[in-house]
C-alpha cells in the first residue's frame, strides 16, 4: 500500500523497505501466490486428484465417449444394416478367444466355421444379422446424448427457477416453493411414463418427459445456495454500487454456487441414463432400428437363454457408464463441497 | 406442531388433487380407444359403449363426475376386465408387490447396515474397500440388469430357484433379491458416511474416556446416533422399490401391481391406469409424511423446528 503522497522524508515515516516477508513453508507460499479467486478451485482440483476413483472413472468416460463415436466407424457394418446370412453369430475377436470372444455358441459349436463366414463380428450379431459392436456403440452414443441434453435442460430450468425464487424472495418465492412442494410429491416415474405415452416414444419425448420432473432437484439446490449467498457482504456491495439484478445473479451469485450445481448436474447424468434404459426396457423407448443401451438390453433379455452375449454386452456397457459417472460425481462432491458428503 | 401437520395435510391434498386432474386430462390425450377391438365395432355399438362408460359427455362433465366418484371411493370400472372394479383389481394385485417390496426392504436394510457399520469401523481396510466397491456397483448397475442376470444364472442355469411366475413362497425370493440390491448399496453407503462423522464427535471421545467398553461405545453411541438419519432414507427407498417393482415384476412375471400397471398402459385401460397412479402417489406421499414424523420422534431438534414454522 502506498502511503500518503510524500512531502519530505521524516525519520518516523514508515517506508516499504521496513517490511520483510515472513519466510513461509513452500506449500503455504504456493497457496498465497495463487490469486484469491482461483484458490478454492485449485484446492478442489487437488482434492479431486487424490480421490482413488476419479481418475480411472474420468478416463473410462473419455474412452467410452470417444468409442461411442469412433466405434461404429471401425467396422464395415452399419447399425441398421441387416444380413440374414449372418444372424445370431456369437462374438468373435481373434486373439481374445480366452475371454469368451471365441465365436462358439452356447453348445460349443463354431458358427463362423459352420457357416463359412470369414469376417469376425466382434460383439456378435442379433437375430437380423445386425452387427452388435456397431449397435452397442451407436446405442451408447444415443444414451449419452439423451442424458446430456436432459441434464443440461434440468440445469437451465433449475438454475433459472431456483435463482429467481431465492433472489426475489417474499411472495414470489412462496408461490414458487408451493409449486415445487406439489411437484416433489408426485412420483416422477409415473409422470414420465404418462408423458411418454402421449408424446409417442422417441428421443425428444424421452428427454422432455425426464425434464418435466427432473429440474426440481436442481432448482432446490440452487435456491438453497442463493438464499445463503444473497445475505453476504459482496452482494450488498454490488447492489450499493448499482449493479443490476440480472448481473448480480449471473456474475456474483451463480458463480459462487457453481460447486453444488456441478455436483447435482453430475448426479443427473447417471440418473438420466438409468431412466432412459428403464423406459426402453419396459417398451416405451426408441423404435427399431434405432438403438439405445436400454433397447439393446431389452432385445437381449428376450433372447437371453439362447444368446446370453446379447444381454451381457450392453448390460456391461451401461454398468460401466453408470459406475464411472457415479464415481466421478462422488469425487466431485467430496472435492467441491465437503459438507454435502452424504 | 398441530398447525405444521395441518399445513402438511393441505399440501398433501392439493398434490393429490393435482395428480388426479393431470392424470385425467393426460389420459384423454392418449392415442387409441379403451375397447379391445375398435375396428370391429359398428358406429352404433361404439356410441352405446361410450354412453355406458359416460365417454359421450363433454370433458368437464366427465371430469366432475370422475372427481365426485373418486372422493366417494368409487374408482371406476376396468375396461379390459369387463365390469371389474378398479379398487378390486388394485387390492387383488397388491399382495405380491407388498411381499417382494417388504422382503427387499428387510434384506436390504439388514445386509446394508451390516456392511456399512463394519466398513466404517475398519475404515481404509481391505474390507472397507470391498464394501465401498460393492456399494458403488450396487448403486450403479440398474436393478433390471441384476434381475435378468439372477434369473438367467440362478433360475435357469443353476435351477436353484424358480425363474418366474408365482406359485409358492420360493417364487418370491429371486424378485426380492433383485430388488434389494439397490437398497443394500444405498443403506451401506449412507450409514458408513454417517458413522465416520459420528466417530469424530467429542461425545464419542468422552464415552471412551469414561471407560465404556469398545463394544458399548460402538453400539450405544456410534450406531444409535448414526441410525437416526437413516430413517430419512426410507422415503427414497420406498420410491426406488416402487420403481423397481414395475420392471422386476415384469421380468419375473409376478402378478403384482407394477405388472398390471404396464399391462394397462399397453391396452389403454384408462380407469386402471388412473387408479394405480393415484394409489402409488398416495402411498408415496404418506411414506414421506410418515418419515418426517418418525424423524421428529427420534430427533427432538427437528420437533423444535416444527414449532418454529407454525
Structural description of this entry:
- Chain A: Its main location: membrane.
- Chain A: This is Peptide ABC transporter permease.
- Chain A: Pfam families: BPD_transp_1 (PF00528), OppC_N (PF12911).
- The complex is a heterodimer of chains A (342) and B (310).
- In chain A, helix 9 (233-240) packs antiparallel against helix 10.
- Chain A is flat and about 100 Å long.
- By secondary structure, chain A is mainly alpha-helical.
- Helices cover 63% and strands 0% of the residues of chain A.
- With 310 residues, chain B is mainly α.
- The chains are: A mainly alpha (342), B mainly alpha (310).
- Please name the CATH topology of the domain at 92-266 in chain B: MetI-like fold
**SS content category of chain A:** mainly alpha
Count helical runs of chain B.
13
Query: Mean pLDDT of chain B, nearest integer?
Result: 82
Number of domains of chain A: 1
Characterize the overall form of chain B.
flat
- DSSP summary: helix tally of chain A: 13
Low-confidence stretches of chain B: none
Briefly characterize the structure.
By secondary structure, chain A is mainly α. Chain A has a single domain, classed as Orthogonal Bundle (MetI-like fold), CATH 1.10.3720.10.
Based on the model shown, name its key terms:
heterodimer, A: 342 residues, mainly alpha, MetI-like fold, 13 helices, 0% strand, B: 310 residues, 76% helix, cell membrane (chain A), membrane (chain A), OppC_N (chain A), transmembrane (chain A)
Q: Topology, please?
A:
The complex is a heterodimer of chains A (342) and B (310).
Chain A: H1 26-33, H2 39-50, H3 54-70, H4 111-114, H5 132-168, H6 170-184, H7 188-199, H8 203-230, H9 233-240, H10 245-256, H11 258-281, H12 293-302, H13 308-336
Helix pairs in contact in A: 2-13, 3-5, 3-13, 5-6, 5-8, 5-11, 5-12, 7-8, 8-11, 9-10, 11-12, 11-13, 12-13
Chain B: H1 2-29, H2 43-52, H3 59-71, H4 86-121, H5 126-140, H6 143-157, H7 173-199, H8 202-209, H9 214-230, H10 234-251, H11 257-266, H12 270-298, H13 300-309
Helix pairs in contact in B: 1-12, 4-5, 4-7, 4-10, 4-12, 5-7, 6-7, 6-10, 7-9, 7-10, 8-9, 10-11, 10-12, 11-12, 12-13
